[in-house]
Specification:
The longest helix is centred in the middle third of the chain and has 16 residues. Helices cover 30% and strands 23% of the residues. The chain contains eight helices and ten strands. With 249 residues, the protein is α/β, with parallel strands linked by helices.
């Protein structure tokens, strides 16, 4: 399945156009525009640490190949046309104190996540995006970013997909009503599997109903490949629709 994905997705990275968002600093991003009329969904993908930088390329490469290209596969675009946003951060997604080395993780809204949301809001004004069907996904460092972004923009995303999300102060209880599917390999040598287990347990205790898939004997990179080629994932994501909320931000 993974080999087939690589073959089918070859060259899809070229369908993303390069753009820039100017705010506190300049955040490069890539945008895929579907060949569809009317309002369609938007998928936001937060890259892992291999995508760090400002070249506007690496967030589509390395371990990010699967999470950025799966939505663009011809069969998926035919059934589920959507915009795909892949922003690139040079300082992570969550909040850090960079005066310490290594940088210390802090509670609160990460600057990378905040700028990614600024881009989402700008795209909502520019394109015909279905406001009830905006989704967010991320792996590793980007998975930590997803936990952070849903906690700090509750009731906004229709669903979240997280693969081996990095350790951070976000405990998994943010925006518990947001449908969420979390993946992790129990042989992960980069992010301990307890990072997902603890958050999922806390989310369930807080009243959430996340889906959790743990791969036995699978390492960090292997989990990313398996998660984003999971046969039911795309169908599950696009079946989710955000319900109106009286306190939505």
């Amino acid at each position: 399945m993974i080999d087939a994905f690589r073959k089918k997705s070859e060259g899809l990275q070229d369908k993303f156009e390069a753009r820039m968002h100017k705010s506190d600093w300049v955040m490069p991003y890539r945008l895929f525009r579907p060949e569809a009329s009317g309002k369609v969904p938007l998928v936001v993908y937060l890259h892992g640490s291999g995508g760090l930088g400002d070249d506007n390329l690496k967030q589509l490469a390395f371990g990010n190949i699967f999470g950025t290209r799966v939505w663009l596969l011809p069969g998926n675009q035919e059934r589920f046309p959507c915009y795909v946003l892949a922003p690139q951060t040079d300082r992570g997604w969550i909040k850090y104190d960079f005066s310490e080395q290594p940088a210390k993780e802090l509670p609160g809204f990460g600057d990378g996540a905040r700028l990614a949301l600024e881009i989402v809001d700008a795209l909502r004004r520019e394109f015909a995006i279905d406001e009830q069907r905006i989704y967010v996904a991320g792996n590793s460092m980007g998975g930590a970013g997803v936990w952070n972004i849903i906690a700090n923009r509750p009731h906004f995303f229709a669903a979240a997909v997280i693969c081996c999300g990095g350790v951070s102060p976000d405990d998994g209880t943010g925006s518990t009503e947001t449908p969420l599917w979390d993946f992790h390999g129990d042989a992960d040598e980069v992010v301990p599997v307890s990072s997902s287990r603890d958050r999922i347990a806390a989310r369930r205790k807080a009243g959430g109903h996340p889906i959790y898939t743990e791969y036995a004997g699978v390492d960090h990179d292997g989990a990313t490949r398996l998660a984003f080629t999971e046969p039911e994932l795309v169908k599950w994501v696009f079946a989710q629709q955000r319900l109106p909320h009286p306190h939505r931000l």
